[in-house]
Amino acid sequence: MSYAIVGFGKVGQALAQAFARKNIDVAVASRRPPEALASQARAIGPTVVAKSLREALEADTVFLAVPFGEHRKVAKTPPSWEGKTVIDAMNAFPVPEELDGIPSSAFAANAFTGAKFVKGFNHLVAATLAADPTVEGGHRVVFLSSDDEDATVPVAALAKRLGFAPVKLGKLNEGGALVHARGRIWGPLIFQDLFKKEQ
């Protein structure tokens, strides 16, 4: 299984740190050329490798950590999304009018035809997401939601590998609404730093 993070701002770098902490290979890419990201990627860890957007999107699992308005550009880059999993770590705020009441992930998923689309890793601020998720005898929670329940299974397994405690919220417009913004109001679970104790 190969992994990539698209977007190398605060959230993208926080996700890269989670991979580096567990020595898991991950490609990182952004609008900038890979050589512009290379030294920053190396500073995070040897398993974090800067690549071009096209190369990074060859990965099996892709984290979207770009500003919401850029997701369509990412979606148009590879010839196909069939067989890939996309993890939406974006937050649309304030919510663009074009969403017309649809959760931002459900809207974005339409651009990634053929991919398994999962909302996840978006509710924590970057500094918290970057920190070691093993705390106080438990693990920091990440929420996952998808309209394809099977799609959350490998993402939950990856979250555990990264040291997090995955909590499934169900479909995007049901439990998933708790980690989406509506208008100018954040979902009630956004910014909630929760832990799950080991059983």
UniProtKB/TrEMBL annotation:
Q: Does the keyword Oxidoreductase apply?
A: yes
* Record InterPro entries: NAD(P)-bd_dom_sf, P5C_Rdtase_cat_N, STEAP_metalloreductase
Q: Which UniProt keywords apply?
A: Oxidoreductase
Q: Which domain of life is it from?
A: Bacteria
The residues that cross the membrane are none
Instruction: Reply yes or no: does the keyword Oxidoreductase apply.
Output: yes
Record-given protein name: NAD(P)-binding domain-containing protein
The record places domain Pyrroline-5-carboxylate reductase catalytic N-terminal at 3-91
